[in-house]
Design a protein that fits this description.
This protein is an alpha/beta fold. It contains 13 helices and 30 strands. The protein has an eight-stranded parallel β-sheet.
Length: 622
């Protein structure tokens, strides 16, 4: 399909990503190390794992070697349903005691994993309860009727793990996707989130009382479209959850998906549901910023985030999309690649992330999320989703500063010994020629350069593996293409001066746009002002139809250009815009002012991201 799969989406996506800006430049700085909020190393276990963890369920023999050795994955996340557990004849509201006397399937699988991997770092998400414990008379079953009985039952599940496997999961999600009626039957009630918070709090207290080392979180929400109805969705859902359950949670969790747009003409014109539905790119940054700013205001500190599912939804049957299987798989692969690059840039706020890809799914061979699919002859064949793990299998090391000149071209850089890894993701609908500007110390040079990449070409996923890169100064990316470039240095740098990236927020959040001059104050610790290496304004904004004109903006009363016209035409736009700041203009108290063309929409967050020198670190001395 010429032009890439992104052409299958709403036209507003292209506008929101600033397509058509021409050639781009990416600067790779090898003269410094970079940490973000103090996190310097990649920490692969936070990114590279699978849903339905290896050895947890019925994964055929032979796949473990690929998952664990070839792709270097770690345990990801597994669901735990109790809907078929037997009833205790003496206690009608409880599961029979003998059910917990033998090893549960999860305990058996976890013990097998522990033999080779003692530091298991997996997520267990609790699901539905048996009918006799569930709310009756509701369309959707499985929701616990008695919260205290449910909490005691989940305690017993973890006790079974400890007894028969010697350990339990590192993370527990109280209830999977608690924001949909299939999992929480009170979803449509006015007090749904009050009940949801009460349940989370009770389960968290029960688990922590016996297993204080287990990290408990929620609400494992299935959508991050918090901007809908002028952020009423946020105020009623995750914003409410943070204020009322945040203290009980060790982490906050949600799922992030790029959705296939619906097919009706009303949707294409921006009618009900007619959103670009793109979570990657500008929106996921806006979500993380709003979560962090709210946590700081409500709890006094950031609660770390677990993105326990992410990807793209394009399954043929579920969405009635008459495409090929290759296209449906590409929907997920394209989104996972894009979202991974976003998440790599948030290491201080992210505890763990799980791409929604599973080794096998005997219950549904039509799934678009499978790494292996059974063929007619019974043979398991790798699907195109395996390219995600193959593309990033060698990604390793400490972060280095990398900048991109385009908002639709994201870049991350790492250095592992003598190897430099540059990850590029292009979300435009036209191929782009990228100039690579390498900032190298005088005594360093490249002795080898290769390129691996994934794109969608002529209706199929095209994978390039370790192709020699002849010109280290330029690279061409196709629409939606993700590439890993690897450069081998002639020697290792003796010292890498390190800089740290930090964020500070204005106190206000979700401020209605009035069309008049609106000011925000952001404080920077005075002791860090003299160490500033660079600074950027991050502005989260939302408006139905996007912004037809740029706002009149200023910093300390001096003009500050803010480009937002690229969002014009997006049916329900919410995203971030980044504006470079002159570090010399920053003060301990910084006044930012914005005047938009008309009322309507919201400013979700205002923040300054700045980098400070934190000294030199000796690495790999010759």
């Amino acid at each position: 399909m010429a032009g890439g799969m992104i052409n299958q989406f709403l036209f507003g996506i292209m506008l929101s990503l600033g397509v058509g800006l021409g050639d781009a430049q990416v600067t790779v700085d090898l003269t410094h190390e970079l940490s973000i909020g103090g996190v310097h190393e990649l920490r692969r276990a936070r990114y590279f794992n699978t849903h339905n963890a290896p050895r947890w369920g019925a994964i055929p023999k032979g796949l473990h070697e690929v998952l664990e050795k070839e792709w270097r994955t770690t345990p990801g996340r597994s669901m735990w349903h109790l809907k078929s557990a037997p009833r205790d004849p003496d206690r009608p509201d409880q599961i029979a005691s003998q059910f917990f006397e033998r090893p549960l399937a999860g305990s058996f699988g976890l013990k097998g994993w522990q033999a080779d991997h003692p530091n298991t770092d997996m997520i267990l998400a609790f699901g539905r309860f048996p009918p006799f414990m569930s709310v009756q008379g509701r369309k959707h079953g499985g929701t616990p009727r008695d919260f205290a009985a449910a909490a005691a039952t989940l305690q017993r599940v973890l006790q079974n793990f400890q007894t028969h496997a010697g350990c339990g999961p590192a993370y527990v999600e109280v209830l999977n996707e608690s924001d949909i009626p299939q999992n929480f039957c009170w979803h449509w009630d006015d007090d749904a989130w009050e009940k949801n918070c009460a349940y989370h709090n009770l389960v968290a207290q029960a688990i922590k009382s016996e297993f204080p080392e287990v990290l408990v979180g929620g609400p494992a929400q299935c959508t991050v479209r918090y901007h809908l109805r002028d952020f009423q969705a946020w105020n009623r859902q995750l914003g409410y959850f943070i204020a009322n359950s945040g203290e009980q949670m060790d982490f906050l969790s949600f799922h992030v998906y790029d959705f296939k747009v619906l097919q009706s003409e009303a949707d294409r014109r921006g009618g009900p549901g007619g959103d670009s539905r793109l979570a990657s790119g500008p929106r996921i940054g806006a979500v993380f910023d709003l979560v962090e700013q709210t946590c700081q205001a409500e709890l006094g500190a950031m609660k770390p985030i677990v993105v326990s599912e992410y990807g793209g939804l394009g399954q043929e049957k579920q969405f009635k999309w008459e495409g090929t299987r290759a296209e449906a798989e590409w929907m997920n692969l394209r989104a996972c690649n894009a979202l991974l690059v976003d998440l790599l840039g948030m290491p201080d706020r992210l505890l763990k992330s799980v791409p929604f890809m599973m080794p096998v799914a005997p219950w549904n061979e039509d799934y678009s999320f499978l790494l292996w699919r059974k063929q007619d002859d019974g043979h398991l064949a790798r699907t195109s989703l395996t390219r995600f793990y193959e593309l990033f299998r060698d990604l390793e090391g400490g972060r280095i500063p990398v900048t991109s000149s385009q908002r639709n071209l994201r870049a991350q850089g790492f250095r592992d010994g003598q190897v430099v890894h540059l990850v590029l993701n292009h979300m435009g609908d036209e191929a782009v020629e990228i100039e690579l500007d390498h900032l190298l110390p005088a005594d360093l040079s490249y002795v080898e350069a290769t390129r691996s990449s994934v794109a969608f070409v002529d209706g199929q996923v095209r994978y390039v593996n370790d192709e020699p890169l002849v010109d280290v100064s330029r690279v061409r990316l196709l629409p939606d293409e993700t590439a890993c470039l690897r450069f081998r240095l002639n020697r290792m740098p003796k010292k890498q001066p390190r800089i740290d990236e930090r964020r500070v927020y204005a106190q206000e959040r979700i401020v209605p746009i009035t069309g008049e001059n609106q000011t925000f104050t952001i404080a920077i610790p005075p002791q860090e002002l003299e160490q500033l290496a660079s600074a950027t304004l991050r502005l989260g904004v939302a408006r139905t139809g996007g912004f037809q004109q740029n706002p009149v903006s200023s910093l300390q009363g001096e003009p500050l250009p803010v480009e937002l016209q690229w969002s014009s035409g997006v049916p329900t736009f919410w995203g971030t815009v980044e504006i470079p700041l002159d570090a010399a203009r920053l003060r301990a108290e910084n006044e930012l002012a914005f005047q938009f063309d008309k009322p309507g929409g919201q400013i979700s967050t205002v923040s300054i991201v700045y980098r400070v020198a934190v000294g030199s670190q000796v690495t790999n001395e010759d």
